[in-house]
Amino acid sequence: MGFDLGTTLQKMNILSDTDNTSVVAITLFVALLCACIVIGHLLEESRWMNESITALIIGVCTGVGILLISGGKSSRLLIFSEDLFFIYLLPPIIFNAGFQVKKKQFFRNFSTIMLFGAIGTLISFVVISFGAIGLLQQMDINLAIGEYLALGAIFAATDSVCTLQVLNQDETPLLYSLVFGEGVVNDATSVVLFNAVQNLDLTHINTTIALELFGNFLYLFITSTILGVVAGLLSAYVIKKLYFGRHSTDREVAIMMLLAYLSYMLSELFNLSAILTVFFCGIVMSHYTWHNVTENSRVTTKHAFATLSFVAEIFIFLYVGMDALDIEKWRVVSSSLKTSISVSGILMGLVLVGRAAFIFPLSFLSNLTKKSPYNKIDFKKQITIWWAGLMRGAVSMALAYKQFTSSGHTNVRENAIMITSTITVVLFSTVVFGLITKPLVRFLLPSSKQLIRMISSEPITPHSITLPLLGGEQEDSLTDLYGQSITHGQTSEASGVGQNIPRPNSLRMLLSSRTVHYYWRKFDNAFMRPVFGGRGFVPFVPGSPTERSVHRFPEELEKLQEH
Amino acid sequence: MGFDLGTTLQKMNILSDTDNTSVVAITLFVALLCACIVIGHLLEESRWMNESITALIIGVCTGVGILLISGGKSSRLLIFSEDLFFIYLLPPIIFNAGFQVKKKQFFRNFSTIMLFGAIGTLISFVVISFGAIGLLQQMDINLAIGEYLALGAIFAATDSVCTLQVLNQDETPLLYSLVFGEGVVNDATSVVLFNAVQNLDLTHINTTIALELFGNFLYLFITSTILGVVAGLLSAYVIKKLYFGRHSTDREVAIMMLLAYLSYMLSELFNLSAILTVFFCGIVMSHYTWHNVTENSRVTTKHAFATLSFVAEIFIFLYVGMDALDIEKWRVVSSSLKTSISVSGILMGLVLVGRAAFIFPLSFLSNLTKKSPYNKIDFKKQITIWWAGLMRGAVSMALAYKQFTSSGHTNVRENAIMITSTITVVLFSTVVFGLITKPLVRFLLPSSKQLIRMISSEPITPHSITLPLLGGEQEDSLTDLYGQSITHGQTSEASGVGQNIPRPNSLRMLLSSRTVHYYWRKFDNAFMRPVFGGRGFVPFVPGSPTERSVHRFPEELEKLQEH
Q: So where does this one cross the membrane (chains A, B) (predicted)?
């Protein structure tokens, strides 16, 4: 690694002016990605570090190295591109999150997630915007009112990519589903707010505008979700009907990947919330499509999507780290370094306050609706949720670039200050908050660790420990289910049919969330699964050894290849 | 699909001037890729069609559609970019080819492959270059001498991507390894010729220049191969030493993918033959690295690499098809349409003659060195090899663009004629030759079909039917071996150890190619495998159920997830 990197850097110095630049940049990035993976692996046992911080630090170090080698000129190859981020890096991450999310956990907390994601983000937006107007205007920074509001919209959104890095779905499933779910839902809120800031006159807020905003949010949320669900169902239907597995498992994987990406891009095209779309597409694909494909495709999709997401995450942090050192914007700011630091501090404080302003009241509200004490979010959990969602990462940075740079340059003083402050906030929050979150979770929620020892799939809520007795609980997490069908093959498929049939259970009826789930299950079994496939509803598993042998000779060949 | 496409096209018309263009282009491409996969699947049973022709035709139709919608203005989003092709689309295809190639078949024919790839391409180059000088100069086309030679270099190279589409490794392994191997090796030849055309005075060829060319070729071939081998061994060593599988199979897949790509980019950076590098990297990875990873990673890498390659292939043909309709270059040519057609015809004829000029003599030479009649390339096979390598595809097109367009535009008449002629040759050869190859192979080599019925892994050479008796033959094809270790898990790994030890066999000693293979096997077992892993030399398979249970609790959790 060291060797590759060294020679690449040498070459870069020589070639940076030729059209080889893109080759050099890609080579450097790929070499750094390899280094991040290896170092991240070596630091795996560490209590504090995580992959994102490693990548960020390596990125910053490389940035320093490039600065030194290029003699302070800073190379163009490191300019942050929102397109690269939103079009190529974000989709695999969010899709994979939807694909691997524990669905039951997610939908059980759906009302709380919506509360945090929609109302919470709005509260945070208001606090940050008006805080910024109040505090920054005193510091000789003249932004338009719309820019202050944009600042609010940028910093109100939790970075779902950071959350994924810090929280572990298996260790803290409730926290994960709440904070990550909020991150997904508030993307829709952010889009609405961004549009509102640009199109509506927000200086005179009245009931009509509030209703309009609410209507916009509902419209966006629903259309984005439907688009994702339709794409997911389409993939399930196509794969079930056309039976790709007959001669090619690669086609199945390709069509899943492409349809998911298509849903993201269509959503982007129609100015919907692409994150929401691809997230729900992932959920639907894991519920239906994944069960319609061959066993090899199942293993492949599970790991290939996770790998793509993993690489994209590291790439983002590396990229943010390297871009942070772009000398041009710091030069503009250098004359007013003190202001820039103060602005960063103020923004950081506003983020802290803005998040606190909705987590605690809304958790209280959410607790009111829950009867069982096990379902309630206690104070320790509230603090963890507040803290774990504080990080601001690449999403904030991309939005800041979108707002404050018109042509990729940052010559206006105010804009340069805003960009550098955003970078400071991103670096600080990712590194410092990121480092502290892991130990904090262990300190505040020690129970999770004990529960993990019991190898419960839902270790935090004691509620869930009693529930497996009700049966059918193991259907919850896709992850449990993956391995099952891989190891047992046909057998587990068959036994899955039995599990799908809801067992009459008076205790389940009593819980209202259970009832919704019950009717959904009924509808799913009666209509959705026969049409779109899914566990236990695919006539036979193509590619399974028992099924294959009855086919004629091209399949024989394929069998030879695969077994 | 139809719906998505329709709305996208509509949108495009409206949005084509905004910065949404890239989003529109990507959405359109992804939708078309999905359509290609579905249609390709439906046409699978067809005797004539293959995926590349489907994609090409869909691409051309879409191009026509865009032309009609945009009112003949032709949209910029379809301009062919060599960077996109060489940096993103080609690496996964060639890497996957190396990863899945039947190694023993490939190395058994290595001398013939080198003969075809190096000497053959040179002969073809000379024939096409001088033919073009002789014929085109009579047609009022004034190109510099260097441009004629470049034309020779462009059209001398077989398109390995096209070959992959038309020939099937399992049906016709000898043909596949010869024609595809030639395609890989002649990339090095092409690079040498291209550099020679630009740097050397080729009008006065003497022994010194010939030796220099030969030296260049050797240097390039050896350094490129070494770079690929080193990258492959590095991945094997890192994964074996650091034992990624302990907590993450995704890291293994990521590091394999990234190191392979890194080798390609480094090779590109140092102006080596990147295709050769990544091909050998794939071979080494399938021989060592692939055996060091967890079972899930094996399934994932096999199918994920194949999927990426599959999507990239379709993308290329779609892209070529859509680009063919770019109105700008046709407008320049339209005044001299007759000339353009004649030039295309002449080039096509020269390609046919140039290929015939080396296949038949070199096959004769190759046959002289082989004692066993089974190893010889008979006349029918020679014709098939000649025909199957006639296609010129995206590689030729990318090289033509590199040579004949300086700024992406084609205003000079000669350049425009050359580009449009290249497109015509590419479309014609891919569609017509592609359509005919499948039936031709079945007509000329009917034996292959019968042998497939016997489910032999090497159906054409009767030689190989007797060989399995020698034992150890099943180690040949990676594909056979995949399923084995997947279905039998630990068991087949254990039995694999036994197979690795070369059995003393007097018959094997008698065959000289066997002897080389024997010493290689000895060296491999004594030195390479203990260091770099490989089948039977990994202490235990991480991720296998028997191994996992002795670990402590984080692995327990992962086990839960994966099983």
A: 20-43, 55-72, 84-101, 113-136, 217-239, 273-291, 303-321, 341-365, 385-404, 416-436
Angle between helices B145-156 and B173-199 (to 10 degrees): 160
φ, ψ of residue A562 in degrees (nearest 5): -95, -15
Q: What is the distance between the alpha carbons of residues A34 and A45, in angstroms, rounded to a whole number?
A: 19
Burial, B551: exposed, middle or buried (Cβ in 10 Å; 0-12, 13-18, 19+)? middle
The residue that leads in pLDDT, A160 or B263, is B263
Set of chain B residues whose Cβ sits within 8 Å of the Cβ of A452: 553, 557
Given CA atoms B342, B347, B352, B354 in this order, what sign does their dihedral have? positive
**Residues in Cβ contact with B277 at an 8 Å cutoff, skipping those fewer than 6 apart:** B224, B225, B227, B228, B231, B263, B264, B266, B267
Sign (positive or negative) of CA dihedral B480, B483, B486, B491: negative
Interaxial angle between packed helices B337-369 and B413-428, expressed in degrees from 0 to 180 and rounded to the nearest 10 = 50
Q: Which of A393, A553, A85 is nearest to B456 (CA)?
A: A553
Instruction: For residue B467, give the 3-state DSSP assignment.
Output: helix
The whole-model pTM stands at: 0.79
Residue indicated by tokens 């956990």? A105
From the number of C-beta atoms within 10 Å of its C-beta (0-12, 13-18, 19+), residue B139 rates as middle
Choose from B482, B556, B561, B563 for mutation: most chain A CBs within 10 A.
B561
Least Cα distance to A276 among A355, A219, A212, A200 occurs for A219
Q: Please give the residue that has the higher pLDDT: either A212 or B260.
A: B260
Residue A443, helix vs strand vs coil: helix
Closest CA to B355 of B554, B90, B512, B163: B163
Place of tokens 């199942």: A298
Residues B40-68: pLDDT tens digits? 888 877 666 777 888 888 988 888 888 88
DSSP string, B383-403: HHHHHHT----HHHHHHHHHH
Q: Which two tokens stand for residue B66?
A: 């865009």
DSSP assignment letter at B503: P
* A237: chain B residues, CB-CB within 8 Å: none
Which ranges in B43-89 belong to alpha helices (H)?
A: 51-69, 82-83
Q: How confident is the model at residue A197 (pLDDT cuts 50, 70, 90)?
A: confident
Residue A475: count other Cβ atoms within 10 Å of its Cβ.
16
* Cα distance between residue B198 and residue B210, in whole Å: 15
Contact A394, A161 (CB under 8 A): yes
CB B340 within 8 Å of CB B333: yes
**Alpha-carbon gap, residue B191 to A342, rounded angstroms:** 56
Nearest by Cα to A55 from A38, A79, A68, A80 = A38
Residue where the block lists tokens 């890192």: B238
Q: Are B14 and B128 contacting, i.e. CB atoms less than 8 angstroms apart?
A: no
Q: Do B254 and A310 touch (CB under 8 A)?
A: yes
Tell me the shortest Cα–Cα distance from A102 to chain B, in angstroms. 11
Please report, to the nearest 10 degrees, the dihedral formed by the alpha carbons of residues B137, B143, B144, B147 taken in order: -110
In the block, tokens 């058994």 appear at B108
Report ipTM for this prediction. Answer: 0.78
Closest to B168 in 3D by CA, of B351, B381, B441, B399: B441
Q: What is the DSSP string of B483-545?
A: HHHHHHTHHHHHHHHHHHSPPP-HHHHHSHHHHHHHHHHHHIIIIIHHHH--TT-SSS-TT-H
The first and second tokens of residue B374, run together, are 């089974």
Q: Which two tokens mark A223?
A: 């259309």
- Pair B447, B369: CB distance under 8 Å: no
Q: Do A269 and A317 touch, CB atoms closer than 8 A?
A: no
User: Is there a contact between B457 and B477 (Cβ–Cβ < 8 Å)?
Assistant: yes
Distance from CA of A420 to the nearest CA of B (A): 25
Q: What's the gap in Å between the CA of A79 and the closest CA on chain B?
A: 18
| Nearest-by-CA chain B residue for A271 | B20
C-beta separation of A32 from A1 below 8 A: no
Residue ranges of alpha helices (H) inside B157-172 are 160-166
